[in-house]
Amino acid sequence: MQHPPSPEPWDRRECGRLIDRQERLQACMQSAALAAQGASAAVLPSYADSAVNLLHYVEARRLDLRGLQKRLARLGLSSLGRAETHVLVNVHKVLGLPHLMAGRPWAARDATELAGMGRAQRLLQRHTAALLGPAPAGMDVPRINCAHDDAQVRTAMAAQIRRAGTAHGRRVRVLMELGGPKLRTTRLGPGPQVLHLRPEKGLDGRVLAPARLTLAPRPRAGALGVDPAWFEQARQGATVTCVDARGHKREARVARKNRHSLVLETEQGVYLTPETWLTLRTAEGGVPTASRA
Length: 293
What we know:
Blueprint: H1 12-35, H2 37-40, H3 48-62, H4 66-74, H5 87-101, H6 117-132, E1 143-145, H7 151-167, E2 175-177, E3 195-197, E4 200-201, E5 207-209, E6 211-216, E7 224-225, H8 228-233, E8 239-243, E9 249-257, E10 262-266, E11 270-272, E12 277-281, E13 289-292
Parallel strand pairs: 1-2, 6-7
Antiparallel strand pairs: 3-11, 4-5, 6-10, 8-9, 8-12, 9-10, 12-13
């Protein structure tokens, strides 16, 4: 049985396309730096190399590198995402690997690069010190977290900081970070039992669907229990009125009823509590009857 030939470790055609794309990127960055030579001439000589590197970086970010980055990632190579201090040399170094994969000649150019990987870090440190001064040693503003300990402990901590600052000839300020509210959870006691019936309304305030409430001769899942005698007297079409928890007079009607439950419908918002009385007025007349909700 014959097996198909093993594929090459790397796709040389893909490496070739990647090399062409990176070389175009290098050319664009170098052209941008040349085009800005007039403006970069005003830069102090000590910052000249960094200014050219900045031009390379801006040009690289101006271009859409997502396709190139995906190709690099498929070969397990750098995506050029962290090369701010040495943009051009980073692209050239990454370019060397596809050359080797495709069997093409390539030579490092570290000695000719304006901002190589090592020199770029030294330039950054030098320029930072020139702009901001030498990095101070020790502490300037210690922070005491007032969410912990008590006033006596925090006072002792501040005094110790003052003594240490005086011993070293430093004026040290103390930052007191105030503790925020401490939330704790616990079981809540029984609160008021309120049922809010709310009809569905449109943006213009018109009622789109009434609020519905199911009543039954005894409490059960999905139904509010009422007096069985009151339930028996209720008929479809009857009116039920109440004064709700806010003191508002409200009215509903019995939309449908069967042996086990009935459904009230109302186009008004109602707040019911166990103390609310429901008054039934039947279509046949007679004395109204009431039951607690």
